[in-house]
Amino acid sequence: MKFLSAFYRRKIALAGLLIIGVLVVSALLAPYLATFDPQEMNTVDKLRSPDGTYYFGTDNFGRDIFSRVVFGARTSLTGSAGVILFSLSIGVLIGVSSGYFRRIEPYLMRLIDVLMAFPPLLLALVLVSILGRGMGNVIIAVGATYLTRTTRIVYGLTLKLREEPYIEAAIASGVKQKWIILKHILPNMMSPLIVQATFTFAFSLLDMAALDFLGLGIPPSIPSWGNMLSEGRMYLTRAPWLLIFPGACIVLTVLSFNLVGDVLRDRLDPHFRRDIEGV
């Protein structure tokens, strides 16, 4: 209840949380909510406007937009979740190692500085061009752009926590370094990482949609919101619903995660807020 009370005080954030819940449920129940096979083509009904049969209309191949939006939610949310797992796992490993073991800090953090010198979308474009298309490769490409930010946050927090009296007491007591990291350092940075994960989720979804729109992301055969925007851009004036519905889903998802992230930052992370902003 204490967790939800923070959302009750900010109604717009509560609305964002509800939208996220609806999207997650829709993604999980996509096969049951979809009214048609998202890949099924019906040239007779191509570019049909929304009605009682096709809730969101159809595309230029006669495929049901509602079904593709629902399955696209599964693809887009899964991809963003993969980016979070990749960026957090690698970022935490590099950040903690650099902050705690100072001998390797110059090498690892200079590598992160080199990656941060590239604009995020440009770096993702280069990596996906090298790795090729596919969900896994796109997750790696986009995740690489966000692990730099995560690494810097974890590195700064590790430096701060390493000087805390209870860490020094553990070192003086002869506690092994791995247990200090696992039992004292990592648990005390969970709140900032949760906050960072919400913002990473939102912006990685935008980047993955951008790659799909440019034709460098997930193959067109897989329904995703970015692919739907890419396919529908040629019919903007004739069939605007091809862009309106997937575009609205992207906007609502990103906005909702940002609103929830703001509440989580204020609720879970008041102590480290200035540390994160300064990294």
Automatic annotation (TrEMBL):
Keywords: Cell membrane, Membrane, Transmembrane, Transmembrane helix, Transport. Gene3D superfamilies: MetI-like (1.10.3720.10). The keyword Transmembrane applies. One of its GO terms (biological process) is transmembrane transport. It is a multi-pass membrane protein. It comes from the Bacteria. Residues 77-261 form the ABC transmembrane type-1 domain. It is found in: Cell membrane. PROSITE patterns: ABC_TM1. Pfam families: BPD_transp_1, OppC_N. GO terms for cellular component: plasma membrane. This is Peptide/nickel transport system permease protein. It comes from Aminivibrio pyruvatiphilus.
